[in-house]
Write the structure tokens for this entry.
Amino acid sequence: MSNRYPVPAAKVPPRNSRVLLSFADKSLALFNVADQFYAIDDSCPHQGASLCGGRLEGRVIQCCAHGLRFDLASGYLLNSTALKVANYPVEREGEQLYIVLDAEESGQ
Ligand code: FES
């Protein structure tokens, strides 16, 4: 069964910004990059620093702690598959966004 988290309208990030969301004992960072939405765990797979406040370039987020960069779409370290941050599909139905929590690693 799908476990979808409806994102409250007030929490939906405007274009080219991000928000931190907490639910189901997780902290997730939700990014809006040119009206494409990406959701990842707010925990760098290197040493656990927050990724939400990192430097965003296109759909690449750079961790503030040691500078590793991750592709928001795949979750992988840029140009590598050595490290991956958990990422979650974001679905849209009209104006409502949902983060699909149990579809991690679905390869979408
Ligand atoms: S904790 Fe993110 S690069 Fe080290």
The chain has one domain: 4-103. Residues 44, 46-47, 49, 63, 65-66, 68 surround FE2/S2 (inorganic) cluster (CB under 6 Å). The chain has a mean pLDDT of 92. The radius of gyration is 13 Å.
